[in-house]
Design a protein that fits this description.
Chain A contains 4 helices and 9 strands. By secondary structure, chain A is of the alpha+beta class. In chain B, the strands form 4 sheets. A 6-stranded mixed beta sheet of chain B has the order 10-11-12-9-3-13. The chains are: A alpha+beta (119), B alpha+beta (376). At the A-B interface, strand 4 and strand 6 of A face helix 2 and helix 7 of B.
């Protein structure tokens, strides 16, 4: 698993990368009440704002960690956004992206480096 | 200005209770504690929440007697002050010469003086404003920096305080009194900012922690941060200064006509009996261009402050703006308030809010969103 400074996690599944946010991020955000996901089939560039997460008080953006195409989104989060608080690194993944270049994934932190970052 | 944040006398208590702190009006304040905004909000509606609001300004106005102070204060606000009985509190606001609002506050008759609680973000300006206009009338203005302020809000509040003051149930909404809690002289009012029954409690700084700890020992009481304070007040349809009301919004547009007294709003005056009186009178007579109303979005996305409103997705000129919006923990859907041109303000009317480039339908709804639960 790889981690971004924006507190996303990336997990490679074959030719796809599954993306979600870390437990640290979800607890910082507080109770999540709404998530807006991109459309399947959308072509995205690294750092595009592609997900909006709303807590009771504030909205935050999630940036695309990679260049590529969104091939699947987690529809469950539309009805149950609170799952991101309960199980952010498991069931509550956000989207699966088909990266243009899988090497981009390698640029991100490993778990040890991320743990040190949030220390 | 120094960017070092001020601390309330309860700062250590917040840290010891794992508060997530935030900067608010120059103070280091608790946004939430470990249970989070949603849980703190619901706890307040069901049991009792305890809030540190010591950042707010506490001011005492003194003259020869109450009447002299009351007459002086009336020159700055569109409320009757002289008729306020001893140990009673009223809601008020300072107006400016264009009929806007300089700040809103609570004021009470404490026998020989007036005690006010004003917004943290406005207290310095309020004190200057009061000194400039009241000192020439023989009224002194004292900023009480030696007192903390907490709010105990929710249906269990009366039971909690009854352990310290047996006659608490005799107090009605907006009554004030002085009671001892943990040996400290506390000034309490039966009021608050959540729409629930509850009390605001002014405590000498040195006793703030012991009084707060004493109240927290009751099983019904939990600490609640500023996050839930905002969601509670918005559900109750209460305005937040700097967001829903400010120097550019009139009390008529803001739906605060109820707080102004008829006797203070007589026909057009040669010399205005309070700042902006003629502008406000004319708005009462002719209606205001905009009105502050409640909105419920039809979809699930919260609509936040500063979102612009349009008749529909093809129109280019906005007809209003959202001033406060969040997810309602009680109703489990987003709620908002904002100004909309009066002709679009009827209940049930639907307009479009432009959120991240998309137009989302929202409906004008009655305020408050949650029924008030005051002890009348």
């Amino acid at each position: 698993m790889k981690f971004t400074e924006e507190h996303e996690w990336l997990r490679v599944e074959g030719e796809l990368v599954v993306v979600g946010i870390t437990k640290h991020a979800s607890s910082q955000l507080g109770d999540i009440v709404f998530i807006e996901l991109p459309d399947e089939g959308t072509t995205v560039s690294k750092d595009d704002e592609i997900v909006v997460i709303e807590s009771v008080k504030a909205a935050s953006d999630i940036l695309s960690p990679l260049d590529g195409e969104i091939v699947e989104i987690n529809e469950m989060l539309v009805d149950e956004p609170g799952k991101v608080n309960d199980d952010p690194s498991g069931d509550a993944w956000f989207f699966k992206i088909k990266p243009d270049n899988m090497d981009q994934v390698e640029e991100y932190m490993d778990e040890a480096a991320y743990t040190k970052l949030i220390g | 200005m120094s960017d070092k944040l001020m601390h309330t006398p309860l700062n250590d208590l917040h840290q010891n209770n794992n508060a997530k702190m935030t900067a608010f009006a120059g103070y280091d304040m608790p946004l939430q504690y470990k249970n989070g905004i949603m849980s703190e909000h619901l706890h307040t509606r069901r049991h009792a929440g305890l809030f540190d609001v010591s950042h707010m300004g506490q001011i005492v106005l003194r003259g020869n007697d109450f009447n002299q102070v009351a007459i002086a204060l009336e020159t700055l606000i569109p409320m009757e002050v002289k008729t306020l009985e001893v140990d009673r509190q009223r809601y008020g606001f300072f107006t400016n010469s264009t009929g806007g609002i300089l700040d809103d506050f609570m004021f009470s008759n404490r026998g020989d003086h007036i005690y006010m609680v004003v917004n943290a973000s406005r207290k310095e300006d309020d004190i200057k404003h009061l000194r400039k206009h009241l000192e020439p009338l023989g009224v002194s203005v004292k900023n009480l920096e030696n007192r903390a302020l907490i709010a105990l809000q929710g249906p269990a509040s009366e039971t909690v305080l009854s352990e310290h003051y047996s006659k608490i149930s005799k107090m009605h909404f907006m009554d004030v009194s002085t009671i001892p809690i943990a040996g400290a002289e506390c000034w309490i009012s039966r009021s608050g900012y959540t729409g629930e029954d509850g009390f605001e409690i002014s405590i000498p700084n040195k006793a703030a922690e012991i009084v707060t700890d004493t109240l927290l020992k009751h099983k019904s009481v939990e600490l609640v941060g500023l996050g839930a304070r905002d969601s509670l007040r918005l559900e109750a349809g209460l305005c937040l200064y700097g967001q829903d009301i400010d120097t550019t919004t009139s009390p008529v547009a803001a739906g605060l006509k109820w707080a102004m007294h008829k006797s203070r709003l007589s026909e057009e005056q040669q010399e205005e009996s309070f700042p902006g009186a003629n502008t406000i009178l004319s708005e009462i007579k002719n209606g205001s261009e905009y009105k502050l109303v409640g909105f419920v979005p039809l979809g699930k996305a919260p609509i936040r402050a500063d979102t612009q409103l349009f008749v529909n997705s093809t129109s280019s000129a906005p007809i209003g703006r959202i001033t406060s919006g969040l997810f309602s923990p009680t109703q489990k859907h987003p709620i908002a308030v904002g100004y909309i041109k009066s002709e679009f303000s009827c209940l049930g009317n639907r307009v479009d809010a432009k959120v991240r480039g998309k137009f989302l339908e929202i409906e004008v709804t009655p305020l408050p969103f949650v029924k008030k639960n005051f002890k009348k």
